Automatic annotation (TrEMBL):
Biased composition (Polar residues): 29-46
UniProt xrefs under InterPro entries: Pants/Emi1-like
Transmembrane segments: none
Protein name (record): Early meiotic induction protein 1
Residue numbers spanned by region Disordered: 1-64
Organism: Saitoella complicata (strain BCRC 22490 / CBS 7301 / JCM 7358 / NBRC 10748 / NRRL Y-17804)
Length: 167
């Protein structure tokens, strides 16, 4: 073979050998787009059911810290899209120091054994999850509406309820 000739791929080899032996070429069964969509949708539904039953976590449990993910998160924090979205929502520049702290902590754990890394990572995950649960959530900020709106398109028609947000 010459230097620039193309190597046949395995399906072409099968087809050529089938033509030489007068045998039918093997037919690859490909799922239809509807079957692919159905299986993808079913896996999505299964993951949603699993998410409902599982307790929220902050990353995979029982694994050492993934320093590449933390490095990527730290750099992605500085992207124009991330900064613009944060500025649009909160009116100030996004502070990425927490991302760098996570990356540095993760990098420091690499000098320990794998068992110690897993233990340290699980302990840190539990601390972060407890801190997240202790923070305010949307249920504390927005009062629960017990009576549906009479006219949802006319906000002024509804009487304003006096609610204590700190209760």
């Amino acid at each position: 073979m010459g230097l620039f000739t193309r190597q046949p791929v395995s399906s072409e080899v099968d087809q050529l050998s089938a033509e030489l032996t007068d045998a039918p070429a093997p037919v690859e069964s490909t799922p239809s787009p509807a079957q692919e969509l159905s299986s993808a949708y079913q896996s999505y539904l299964d993951s949603q059911e699993k998410d409902k039953t599982s307790e929220p976590t902050l990353g995979p449990q029982g694994e050492p810290c993934d320093w590449r993910r933390h490095f990527d998160d730290a750099f992605m924090c500085y992207t124009v899209t991330s900064q613009w979205k944060h500025y649009y929502r909160y009116g100030e520049q996004k502070d990425c120091n927490a991302k760098w702290d996570e990356f540095m902590w993760c990098s420091k754990t690499r000098m320990y054994s794998k068992e110690e890394q897993i233990q340290m990572n699980d302990e840190r995950r539990r601390e972060r999850l407890a801190k997240l649960r202790a923070a305010r959530n949307s249920e504390e900020v927005w009062p629960l509406r017990r009576v549906p709106l009479a006219d949802p398109w006319n906000y002024e028609a509804e009487p304003k309820a006096d609610t204590d947000l700190n209760a």
